[in-house]
């Protein structure tokens, strides 16, 4: 039964990521709160899926000419380092602290999505020509995402827009950035689980999440993305409040 839930969950969440660019942070919740996996296992499975969604999604945006490679690589270089630090911190901190941070990020992500929907950020002053700023931003977001299980785009995309990036290009950069966050995070967390015994499950996660992302990216333009984002945000806020309630 758990296998079926994981397959359906990855297809649905992968579809949401393909359609809206958000919702990846729901995967750790599915594994830990929904199916009872440990925090380390849930993060390992999730970051493996994020590699797939980030790679497939960023390829689409690059094909459409919506990718500033200079910005993407500077940001991603910082995120790679930040993700390594985040994984190490996760393994040192008590599980209760990590779970608290995870649900806090889910709650804040839901609130951020609602605010974004009602008050879309306007591109501000162009700070994208400041390499040091981009690297620092990458380190901070990579650390937070790797430590908490957030996919990346839900935090990185709005920050890029505020720095002056065109919104569609920001989504593409954030998706590529999520690959650089997820690679060290997935390796770090997978090294803490019984890899060989979970290999069939990992293969199924890759396949189903990939299917969801591909389908979602194709039907996304035909569906009201605003409605989907609002639904994801409301669900995240409710879940975060329930889990954080003492």
From TrEMBL:
Q: Which InterPro entries match?
A: TM_pro_TauE-like (IPR002781), TSUP/Inactive_protease-like (IPR051598)
> Quick one: signal sequence residues?
none
Keywords on this record? Cell membrane, Membrane, Transmembrane, Transmembrane helix
Enumerate the Pfam families for this protein: TauE
Isomerase found in the keyword field: no
Q: Where in the cell is it found?
A: Cell membrane; Membrane
Membrane-traversing stretches: 7-31, 43-59, 71-91, 97-115, 135-163, 169-190, 197-215
Q: Kindly report the protein's main subcellular placement as a broad class.
A: membrane
Provide the family line: Belongs to the 4-toluene sulfonate uptake permease (TSUP) (TC 2.A.102) family.
Q: What is this protein called?
A: Probable membrane transporter protein
Q: In which organism is this protein found?
A: Lacticaseibacillus rhamnosus (Lactobacillus rhamnosus)
The taxonomic lineage of its organism, from the top, reads: Bacteria, Bacillati, Bacillota, Bacilli, Lactobacillales
């Amino acid at each position: 039964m758990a296998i079926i839930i994981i397959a359906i969950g990855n297809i649905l969440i992968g579809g949401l990521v393909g359609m809206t660019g958000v919702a990846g942070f729901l995967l750790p919740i599915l594994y830990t709160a929904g199916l009872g996996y440990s925090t380390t296992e849930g993060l390992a499975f999730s970051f493996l899926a994020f590699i797939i969604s980030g790679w497939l999604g960023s390829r689409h945006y690059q094909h459409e000419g919506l990718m500033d490679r200079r910005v993407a690589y500077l940001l991603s270089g910082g995120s790679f380092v930040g993700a390594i630090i985040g994984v190490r911190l996760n393994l040192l901190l008590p599980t209760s602290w990590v779970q608290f941070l995870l649900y806090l990020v889910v709650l804040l992500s839901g609130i951020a999505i609602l605010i974004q929907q009602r008050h879309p950020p306007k591109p501000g002053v162009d700070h994208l020509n400041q390499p040091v700023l981009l690297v620092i931003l990458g380190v901070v977001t990579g650390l937070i995402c790797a430590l908490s299980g957030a996919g990346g785009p839900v935090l990185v995309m709005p920050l890029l827009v505020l720095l002056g990036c065109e919104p569609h290009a920001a989504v593409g950069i954030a998706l590529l950035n999520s690959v650089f966050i997820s690679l060290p995070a997935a390796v770090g967390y997978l090294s803490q689980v019984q890899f060989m015994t979970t290999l069939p499950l990992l293969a199924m996660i890759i396949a189903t999440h990939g299917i969801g992302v591909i389908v979602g990216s194709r039907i996304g333009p035909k569906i009201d993305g605003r409605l989907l984002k609002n639904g994801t945000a409301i669900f995240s806020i409710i879940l975060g409040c329930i889990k954080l309630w003492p």
